[in-house]
């Protein structure tokens, strides 16, 4: 049933397109973008069951429609690929983001500052200043859990 409905939908789209370049005349509309986004993968992809793909290929105006949009908006598809960018000494990744190394270092530093800040604020780590020769009196002595409960 699903394949039958899909074939019927493709046939109706083919009839609606007729011999026009796009569904609403000579310039593309949002419907053209939507329809193309569904038809192009169906037309170009290798599928395990090609019944629907074969039906689409039999509808020449829809195939021409997809080919026209591909050549107009994606000229490198199916033939020439765009010229690859020359990779520098650090590879292609360095060309994409010239500040990637700086961003990585800043991310690590920010993470380190955040972890240290959390450690200090939560009391996991504390800094005590010690004077030479004198011992600072402690205002709190460590308590066991039972002593804290009794104190409360």
TrEMBL record:
<keyword id="KW-0812">Transmembrane</keyword>
<dbReference type="GO" id="GO:0001401">
    <property type="term" value="C:SAM complex"/>
</dbReference>
<feature type="region of interest" description="Disordered">
    <location>
        <begin position="131"/>
        <end position="152"/>
    </location>
</feature>
<keyword id="KW-0472">Membrane</keyword>
<feature type="domain" description="Metaxin glutathione S-transferase">
    <location>
        <begin position="6"/>
        <end position="69"/>
    </location>
</feature>
<protein>
    <submittedName>
        <fullName>MTX1 protein</fullName>
    </submittedName>
</protein>
<keyword id="KW-1133">Transmembrane helix</keyword>
<dbReference type="InterPro" id="IPR036282">
    <property type="entry name" value="Glutathione-S-Trfase_C_sf"/>
</dbReference>
<feature type="transmembrane region" description="Helical">
    <location>
        <begin position="105"/>
        <end position="127"/>
    </location>
</feature>
<dbReference type="Pfam" id="PF17171">
    <property type="entry name" value="GST_C_6"/>
</dbReference>
<dbReference type="GO" id="GO:0007005">
    <property type="term" value="P:mitochondrion organization"/>
</dbReference>
<dbReference type="InterPro" id="IPR050931">
    <property type="entry name" value="Mito_Protein_Transport_Metaxin"/>
</dbReference>
<dbReference type="InterPro" id="IPR033468">
    <property type="entry name" value="Metaxin_GST"/>
</dbReference>
